[in-house]
Amino acid sequence: MNQIVEKWKSVLHTSNRSTILVGLLLFIGLVILLTFTLPEAPDWHNLYRPGALAMIQGKNPFDNPIFYNAPWVLIPMIPLLLLPEAVGRAILTVATLVILVLVAHRFGARPVGIVFILLSPPVFQLMLDGNIDWIVALGFILPPQIGLFLLAVKPQTGMVVGIFWLVEAYQKGRIREVFRVFLPVTLAFVISFLMYGFWPLRFSTALELGGNASLWPMSIPIGLALTAAAMRKHRVEYAMAASPCLTPYALLHSWISPLLAIAGSTTETICAVAGLWMVVIIRALGR
């Protein structure tokens, strides 16, 4: 019996090593391919790479007038500064795909649904722009104490999930649980204010930028209904879908959160992606 167990352990260990090796080779291959094929990503070029560079130089990343995100989003990007810009951009693109597949899978998506999500307009724009909504998506499946850091990066993509976690924490353990869950991110905000000033005030100027895909204020009733459903049914998916409905500014890739919210239903996912492409085509023809 022990010999059989040890044999299976050996097989599994070998299998894991093979899987890791294949995954690593695939990752390297994709990075090389995308390095030479992708166009320059405006958000990576103009926002996140310069912001990470400013951070390590002890400068204020908010000196860039179009940088609005929580500053800690720049920390994981610092190692990419060691690489050429195109390589860093390719790595972020692969990370985007991997994280979205992981999150969709966690919400019950089947392979067909995952493929449609990856072929959706929000994901296309996310990859072309080099933006970071995939980081917020990762926050949806992490413990709230960690996930809140990622949600804070782009409130328009995940703010209602934060409210959902607040209510859930209060119902679970009242003020003590709320304190336990929200203290880490609150301290991070306070420290960032001391370092960079009250940077959330800059959000108001984002409304002056182009590309706004928000349905606000017409989407407010839908957002409130989804928020109520999230609280009543204790389902985070409703909160994920509500967030872009309750913000006056949301780019197309911010709508990835409602797509992930319905990822467990393949038919609905296909219909939603088809509808998004219809919107893109109609807008393109109307120009």
Please tell me about this protein's structure.
By secondary structure, the chain is mostly helical. The chain has one domain (38-286). It is built from 12 helices and no strands. It has helices at residues 2-37, 42-56, 85-106, 111-118, 121-129, 133-140, 144-151, 155-196, 220-233, 236-242, 256-261, 266-286. Helix 3 (85-106) runs parallel beside helix 6 (133-140). The longest helix is centred in the middle third of the chain and has 42 residues, at 155-196. The chain is globular, with a radius of gyration of 20 Å. It starts with a helix and ends with a helix. The model has no long low-confidence stretch (mean pLDDT 91).
Provide a short characterization of the protein structure:
The chain is built from twelve helices and no strands. The protein has 287 residues and is mainly alpha-helical.
Which secondary structure elements does this structure contain, and how are they paired or packed?
Blueprint: H1 2-37, H2 42-56, H3 85-106, H4 111-118, H5 121-129, H6 133-140, H7 144-151, H8 155-196, H9 220-233, H10 236-242, H11 256-261, H12 266-286
* Helix and strand composition category: mainly alpha
Number of folding domains? 1
Strand content: under 5%
Helix content: 55-70%
N-end to C-end Cα span = 71 Å
Order of helices and strands: HHHHHHHHHHHH
Mean pLDDT: 91
What overall geometry do the principal axes of the alpha carbons give?
Answer: globular
Give the count of helical stretches.
Answer: 12
User: Which parts are unreliable, with pLDDT below 50 for 5 consecutive residues or more?
Assistant: none
State the total count of DSSP E strands: 0
Major sheet, described briefly?
none
Report Rg.
Answer: 20 Å
Oligomer: single chain
